[in-house]
UniProtKB/TrEMBL annotation:
Biological process, per Gene Ontology: L-cysteine catabolic process to pyruvate
Any one GO MF annotation of this record: L-cysteine desulfhydrase activity
Residues making up the signal peptide according to the UniProt record: none
Family statement: Belongs to the UPF0597 family.
InterPro entries: Ser_deHydtase-like_asu, UPF0597
Organism: Butyricicoccus pullicaecorum 1.2
Domain Serine dehydratase-like alpha subunit: 148-421
Protein name: UPF0597 protein HMPREF1526_00417
């Protein structure tokens, strides 16, 4: 693929849009970002706060620790952190710099001010509406479709921003069209690209995500899935790939204040797409540039798999990233298009349907299972084994199977998503 090819430029731009830093689970951080921005526009600390959130936002914020809050969880904590200590110009690192005094101030604000949470009206999957009031003044701000997409701002009856209506799973116009992505095109791009076009952003992903994975192994975070795997299964690279990715998630879900580079709006997916590939690259002693290529391959495959599903779903996003990581590992071991395509199909057939029941420590175990399926998918192909079209949701051709996965995650699991939210909220 030539740099002058429109697809080449699209792929570069997609990576720039997706590989961004975030500290903490991205859904509560999106609330903190919106709250910080709204407070900035209001010009003072609000006396009351109303947060209207779609079911998937409620699901993903309910059980995860908001970083830099001394262990607080939930929508109220995320909003308070953004209001009291947030820096909106830092976007998804909005609460990366919080002093000890500000941590106490967040708790005080929660104790002394009214923060009301309600389900958002309508069917938009990703929807956050914040209304901050002080005296007779108010600011209403809406984020929809993805984490940093502010689509509406009004102050005291004056419209400051209106970015148009939102619709479920619509590819927001501010993002590059993902329809040019294909397994064949992604592989062509990775094998022919100028490494320097992606070097800075992928090297940052390798650095950040390796650091939080190591912190997860070294510390006591969540359910310590990484340490459990290493203790009971040994130190083989197949185990390390699962353990390190799980450890990064455990740390992140439990309030670790290290940043990650996200993929498809998710830090867990960013970790899963990169860390297993990094472990295999170390084991195989490949060049640094080849590692960059492999991580880029995994990132783009993850994005491709997730495009049809949507940003938030009942379908666990770690599955997409784990299957993509398995395919990048296959490439590191000399695999070509056929190897990668069959690895994807084999692994997707194995773990598609794992549910997303919000952000919390069990995400780490799901990541371990997804990476294991990705590695197994490659080992199956190496031994001449595969799943065939007609085997369940598998159909002939990797792109057709990917479309089936998108249909399953976006359409088929919609009612499952609603039931999960009802179970989690006790309704």
């Amino acid at each position: 693929m030539q740099p002058t090819d429109i697809r080449y430029q699209n792929y570069i731009q997609i990576l720039k849009e997706e590989l961004v830093p975030a500290m903490g689970c991205t859904e509560p951080i999106a609330i903190a970002y919106g709250a910080a921005k709204a407070r900035e526009i209001l010009g003072c600390l609000p006396e009351t706060v109303l947060v209207e959130a779609s079911g998937n936002i409620i699901k993903n914020v309910k059980s995860v620790v908001v970083p830099n809050t001394d262990g607080l969880k939930g929508i109220e904590a995320a909003a308070a952190a953004g209001i009291v200590a947030g820096h909106a110009d830092q976007i998804l690192e909005v609460i990366a710099s919080v002093s000890d005094a500000e941590k106490q101030a967040i708790r005080t604000y929660l104790d002394e001010h009214e923060i009301t949470v309600r389900p958002a009206e309508g069917d938009v999957i990703f929807d956050i509406i914040l209304t901050l009031r002080s005296g007779d003044s108010y600011v209403k701000l809406r984020i929809a479709d993805y984490h940093t997409n502010i689509v509406h701002v009004e102050k005291d009856g004056v419209l400051l921003l209106e970015a148009g209506h939102t619709a479920e799973n619509v590819q927001a116009s501010t993002l590059t069209d993902r329809s040019s992505l294909s397994v064949e095109g992604i592989l062509d791009f990775v094998e022919t690209m100028c490494i320097d076009d992606v070097r800075e952003m992928v090297e940052r992903q390798i650095e950040y995500n390796s650091a939080i994975a190591q912190a997860g192994i070294d510390g006591n975070w969540g359910a310590n899935i990484g340490s459990v795997l290493l203790h009971h299964y040994g130190n083989d690279v197949k185990i390390r790939a699962r353990a390190m990715a799980a450890a990064g998630s455990d740390a992140r879900m439990s309030g670790c204040e290290l940043p990650v580079i996200i993929v498809s709006g998710s830090g867990n997916q960013g970790i899963t797409a990169s860390v297993p590939v990094i472990e295999y690259a170390k084991e195989l002693q490949v060049s640094h540039d080849k590692l960059i290529q492999a991580v880029t391959l995994s990132d783009l495959l993850t994005i491709h798999l997730k495009t049809g599903i949507g940003r938030l779903s009942a379908y666990c996003g770690a599955v997409s990233a784990g299957c993509a990581a398995g395919s990048a590992i296959a490439w590191l071991q000399g695999g070509g298009y056929e190897d990668i395509a069959h690895t994807l199909v084999n692994s997707l057939a194995t773990v598609s349907g794992v549910i997303c029941d919000g952000a919390k420590p069990s995400c780490a175990a799901k990541i371990a299972a997804a990476v294991d399926a990705g590695i197994l998918g490659h080992q199956m192909y190496c031994d001449g084994q595969q799943f065939y079209g007609g085997d369940g949701i598998v159909t002939k051709g990797v792109e057709n199977t990917i479309r089936n996965i998108g249909r399953l995650g976006h359409d088929g699991m919609r009612e499952t998503d609603k039931e999960i939210i009802r179970i989690m909220t006790g309704l």
